[in-house]
Protein 1
Amino acid sequence: MKKLVLAAALTAAASTAYAGNLEEPIVEAPVVVEETQGSSQGILLPLILLVVVAAAVAAS
């Protein structure tokens, strides 16, 4: 009975010891998405503010 328990313990230890492999993991490169910005991006907000101010002046 002791030999059976010893054999079971050694089998369990051996199976977990060889569970892994020696190959390096495959790591994919991260995907980088660049946002395109037009040249008119910086002037859009001042134009909207100008229209709002002109509408406020015209209404008063």
Protein 2
Amino acid sequence: MDKKPKKKKFEVQPGETISDCLDRMAGEGYFPVRRMEEPVFKEVKKNGKMVQEYHEQRIVFEGKLQ
């Protein structure tokens, strides 16, 4: 029997709903204990300068083994 880690991070994938991610967590035997939202930036060249621009929001859940 494989020993699972006590905590694991689950990222909401593109095209996946939060509910789908939570179902995937439950299927692996984890329940959510923390939700983190991280902004993702891209570097874009504007007027000859490199500028960081907001691109998307990444949602990550921390799961604890049941």
Protein 3
Amino acid sequence: MDALANSLPEGRVLTDPDVIDSYARDRTYLEPGKPAGVVLAASRDDVVTTMKWATEHRVPVVPRGAGTGLAGASVAGDGSVVLSLARMTAIRELSPADEIAVVEPGVITADLDRAAREHGLMYAPDPSSYEISTIGGNLATNAGGLRCVKYGVTRDSALGLEVVLADGRILDTGRRTMKGVTGYDLTGLFVGSEGTLGVITAATVRLRRAPATAPATFAAEFGSLRDAGAAVSAIMAAGCQPSLMELLDRATLEAIDDWRNIGLEPQTQAMLIGQSDATDGQAMAARMDELCMANGASFVAVSSSPQEAEELIGLRRLAYQAKERQGACLVEDVCVPRSVLPDMITAIEAAAARHGVRIATVAHAGDGNLHPVFIFEHGTIEPPPEVWAAADEVFTHALELGGTLTGEHGVGLLKQRWLALEAGPVATEVQQGVKAVFDPLGILNPGKAI
């Protein structure tokens, strides 16, 4: 590490074990290895220098943003170098005319959105951690978020990337234009690759026109989780095009109520929170209100002010923190076709009952993307066998319904045990071949994603 420290500006390399431990973890329960050091990159040149050194000395490199990941993709291994990109926070360009921004990977997601809104624009992807997660981490995992039901996931807003490859070469992918089909889609390949193919040092992202008026927001309460799922299917089938459609189960609502005392009613088993940012948003919200009532909602309310709407959305964003207060969390994010969302919800409830496991579920319901969170005792190094058994059932059923193991959190370390069930031998071989082209020495985030 001394040679690397001498080749970088002073203060860029950390080696104190007590300090670097905090950079070795993400938000999972996983215990990291003991990395050799941390590089606090402040520029692309810092990344280039680090990767050239790592290639020369065959040292594994674990790229890292804010450490908000939920799949273990940025958990460090023994002897690795953690490459933190959190100091690369420049918005290099924001062009209202072209509706694009060029940003470095350490930019906080919500900060980019706020900068865009000063020009009547917005950055559409908004994971629940948007106030603390970074653009680089969102790109690395192809993060989704609450608005992706209408605007898509991070990949849908990524136009081009600046990437430092394993050997230190700089690769520019994509374009600044809304359309472009020259060559292979390397931008799409790197988005979601979890730092296994290269280190993203800048991104050209698409901005969109912000809604002219505040979105219309509604909240509906249901006596059963399945009824809430049926309401979601009805809303999407009716073509209401919500800009947000979030589902919270009873266990999640109880966790929030224990923390913030939201006045949860005994009969409420699920809550659906939806928004429309269309020009006829109030009419759309009223239509979604009707569909909720037709599918068993016991109570529906449409917000009367932007403040009320923010309070409802804030309730959803509290979900994971509320569960963390109750125990260690194994967070999953299966995604199924929207038409079978009620069936998937039923399967999760059945798995919880069969194995005696506490599962608290939220969902980006308009996408069919569910987050069943398996809660177990704090301080437990590994989830107990009954948690793994329940998780096996949930993943297997999702695949049987035509779904996928992860909609937005990524594979990381946590989903390695199930990856072969979805990928199959041919896809696995092809992906390993792609990895070998970009990272022949296998030093970029080894053991993650594939």
